[in-house]
Amino acid sequence: MKKVAKVLSLVLILVLTVGCFAACGKKDEAAQGKVLNIYCWNEEFKERVEKLYPGYTKDSSDSSKGKIGDVTVVWNITPNANNAYQNALDEALRKQKDAKADDKVDLFLIEADYALKYVEPSVSMSLADLGINVSKDLANQYKYTQDVVTDSKGNLKGASWQGCPAGLIYRTDIAEKVLGSSDVDIVQKAVKDWASFEATAAKMKEAGYAMVAGFDDSFRVFSNNVSSAWVDADKNVVVDKRIWDWVDQTKKFTDNGYNLKDSLWGEGPWKQGFFMDGTTFCYFGPAWFIDFCMNCDQPNSVGDAGKWHITVGPEGFFWGGTWVCAATGTDNSELVKDIILKMTADTDILVKLAQTFSDFVNDKPAMEKLAADSSIGNKYLGGQNLYGVLAEGANKISIKYASAYDQGCNENFQACMKEYFLGNATLDEAIEAFKVKIKTVYPDLKTDKIGR
Amino acid sequence: MNETVKKHSKLGKDKWGYIFLIPFFVAFLVFSFWPLIQTIYFSFFDHYFSQTDFDYVNKFAGLKNYKELFTPETARLFFNTMVMWILGFIPQIVFSLLLASWFANNRLRIRGAGFFKAVIYLPNLIMAIAFGMMFFTMFSRGGPVHQICEAFGMSPEYDFFFHIGPTRSLVAFINFIMWFGNTTILLMAGIMGINESLFEAAEVDGASQFQVFRKITLPILKPILIYVLITSLIGGIQMYDVPEVVTKSSGMPMSKDIFSLNVPAAETVIMRLAKYISKSKNYGSAGALSVMLLFITGILSVVVYKFMVKDEE
Fold first, then answer.
1. Which fold has domain B67-312?
2. What domain range is A143 assigned to?
3. A278 to chain B: nearest residue by CA?
């Protein structure tokens, strides 16, 4: 027994001293770490880095690892479902200070819907602190992609390789029947502002069509153009005038039969509208919406017939996108800086990105060149080059007001207002229900100021 | 001398019983008991993740979380849960009793009884979420059930999930389909445990099938029935996955009924609990709600225990 104890204590001492040496050894080396931890929720960024970041080599035995020079890149991928990605990231960032150098988060990816949650607190680094000259190095980026990740003090804290400007996607055959022409300029005139949009909706109804399929199709268009954030400086939830405009318009559309009473991503009329026997005139969406969501690859779909077209619509807005942020406390600041610069601001790489992945890349001159190229045409849009419309939309977008709580506010507001649109609740009752949901989801917010 | 050796070896064997119990108790202590203590502890705190500070708020709050629970809102959550449970439990117990008495009845000589027993149990093997998704797709607009109803003259505009009755009934129906097989097997075990001579005696006395069922089967089955009732009730209180999926986690549609409060009609207690944790990891409020549930299920368990013990006596 004694022998065992002796051996054990010897082993323990050995382990401890080796650990100590290892730790000491690290301190003596240069400030840069040997492991780059990247947090994300899918393979999108990984694929792009693997393909286009100079000097990146894949690890043939472990797909979650790679190498840049002598630095090991570790991809920590947690799927988005059920908030799992944010939960994992929250825990990692909260423990960042005490984590070992090799375990520290270096880069992480975020989406617009909750960007401010990570941009506002000190968990993300200002790009200027990384040594990036924002006005010079990132001059080609679309302004709105920077607005999304700028904190209240004006620090830019992330960058994106793509833009997701969106437009109004309409059916040419219905436009010809009801508006007399499917020409983009003529249709744009009919939807150039919300008043015209409503007038066109009435015409559509008369002709037996619905302007939009669901309640929340236009929500993003309004919420991108608000003049105050969901949450003010004193943590009061406030509903912006533009959000109320959406409520009024949607109630009117529902009562008048201008929509088909479905919700975004609904399996019913919302989806039916993607097919030729559907009756929906238009949808709001970016390029990925056309390519991946409108069932264009299926027979008898509107896209298959090439009968969609895209125009700017009443207001500029965007939908989606992924931003790359540097985590405070990273031990690989040089590499992090280089990845951000190469992947989001290097025109050569971005042009290749556009060619390989058909992304709408975050580079104004590159996109303007593509927009002018008459050989590019989207077959679902009957050969229309959508880059021109999207680039025009991208310049119109301005995101000034966002908060860390946007995701929960948007989701719950839409769910509660749907009951008002359907007539299951009065507006006041829907507002009360919204207050309860907010209190449940965000206990630190005050709800007394919600109301008209 | 001999006797002490015997005694000793007996003790030695007893030891193994305890050793084999260790894994369970370790797992129980680590994964059940410790979280339980923590839950109770946190229920007295304001404990949540603040998005602005990017850290946990942790302030002693006394009974605040509990006080906030005693509102008509919470009552409505329990009411929703119970309505959907009762709607599912009544057909469940009726069908199960019927099937159990048929399967257990030797005189009926049902062919392929084993096959049918397996079939009725099958729905329970499918995940509730998958079941919920399937029914949601079938009943939503554009889904097969909806199209069949349209063929029979229902308006294509009608949406089952915009209305309280259909939404609640559907949740109840899914729970019924999932659990009636399980209940049938429990009841069958109970019926088969009844002494056959009682049935024979009744037959000799000229009792009808219905009389046998009412006067012999039901009274002897009472403890098992109560067990089924209470366990189903405890399961019902914890109803979560089906309404979560069917209402896309909103708990909508809204309705005004006996509380004249217009709140989501299909939101259950556990759905609220999940909402507390979803974005802000609000373990304070969620803890208080959990402790409340612990008390309710605890009381119900004591009731079951009392009946079981009485039965043994």
1. MetI-like fold (1.10.3720)
2. 31-163+321-371
3. B142
